[in-house]
Amino acid sequence: MSNLDKLQQINTNVPRETNVHMADGLVIKRPNDAPGAKQQTLWIEKQKSAQKIQDFMREKHNPNYFVPHMLEVSAAQLFAIEERVPGHPLTTSFAEGLSPQDISLVYRGLAHFINDMATYMPVMNQAEYFDSAAVAGDDKKFTFAYVLNHIAKYLRKPDIDLLKKAKALFDAESLNDASVVFSHGDMNEHNIFYDKTTKTLSIIDVADAKYENANEMFYRNYARLGWLDIERLIAEFNALPHARPINVVSNRYLASLRNALHSFKWSAIEILKNPKHVNNIRIQMLREDFDAVVRNYNTAKMHFSQKKMESVISVEKPTPSDTFSQKQK
């Protein structure tokens, strides 16, 4: 792999973590500017993860999309080799030249790909995901409950009780909010190809695959495709049978509360992991994150209380036919 400079470089992502070269129907990937052993190891681990995911997706044998076979990952020589996919990157200009039939195949293929990717890891609700290993990594013991039990030195008991109420509201309301699903993680026009001759949609580069909030997956990740009608893609996706129900609707008040709870949790973890280095700045940051939780909790509580009240009023309000019947009596 020492003569890669002589091969055609085919990727155009900027900035890029990986350089991609073409050779005899294959693509050869190498890390871009990864001099340190740690960076090299991380790059190789991402390629190995991608290889497993691509093997899993290929075993689906789903005719609506194509995922290339990653043939080899070499830690010794720092390269990965996989099939080159057919077709052209789905840029906005290329997509505008596709027929309505081609566009329909693209939406259908993307919906199937997203649905199949979600089966690689269990679908979770946000409460399940909040303290999961996917979020915590090596800090598995630092659940929100653990944090509250050990951060009392820096917060008053009423503050702890308020945090517990905020988390309880989040846990309850998130059951009906957007699901958390395993997703591509880096969807852009250079990672999706379409071949007009063979009618083949191909998706590549799943090295950044990860869990994502289903709403954010569509409106942030897939929204990078400038030509894409997100609502049409969601409709195609919702029309498919799912292994576990997947909700893509997100409540902005709950999302703000979730983000505030996460920020507080990680500020507290930094203190708990490094108690000897706690200073006034860290304590102030913790207090600011706590205040953000309180603000978002009060707003969310008011919002959901109002929704429940409106729901009760709607149920109790007599229908026109009921009103007419009562008048007749």
Description:
This protein is of the alpha+beta class and about 325 residues long. Among the domains are: about 5-85, Phosphorylase Kinase, domain 1 (2-Layer Sandwich), CATH 3.30.200; about 125-175 and about 250-300, no CATH class. Helix content is about 50%, strand content about 15%. The chain has helices spanning about 35-60, 90-95, 100-115, 125-130, 135, 145-150, 155-175, 215-220, 230-240, 250-275, 280-315, 320-329; strands spanning about 10, 20-25, 25-30, 70-75, 80-85, 90, 180-185, 190-195, 200-205, 210-215. Strands 1-2-3-5-4 form a five-stranded antiparallel sheet, with helices on one face. The chain has a three-stranded antiparallel sheet with strand order 6-8-9, covered by helices on one side. β4 (about 70-75) and β5 form a beta hairpin. α7 (about 155-175) crosses α10 (about 250-275), α7 packs across α11 (about 280-315) and α10 (about 250-275) runs antiparallel to α11. It is globular and about 65 Å long.
In short:
This protein has 329 residues and is of the alpha+beta class.
Structural class: alpha+beta
Largest sheet: 5 strands, antiparallel
Percent of residues in helices: 40-55%
Beta-strand proportion = 5-15%
Tally the beta strands. 10
Key features?
329 residues, alpha+beta, Phosphorylase Kinase, domain 1, five-stranded antiparallel beta sheet, 12 helices, 10 strands, globular, disordered C terminus
Question: Layout of SSEs?
Answer:
Blueprint: E1 8-9, E2 18-23, E3 26-31, H1 37-58, E4 70-74, E5 79-83, E6 88-89, H2 92-96, H3 100-117, H4 126-130, H5 133-136, H6 144-150, H7 157-173, E7 180-183, E8 192-195, E9 200-203, E10 210-213, H8 214-221, H9 230-238, H10 252-273, H11 280-316, H12 320-328
Antiparallel strand pairs: 1-2, 2-3, 3-5, 4-5, 6-8, 7-10, 8-9
Helix pairs in contact: 3-9, 7-10, 7-11, 10-11
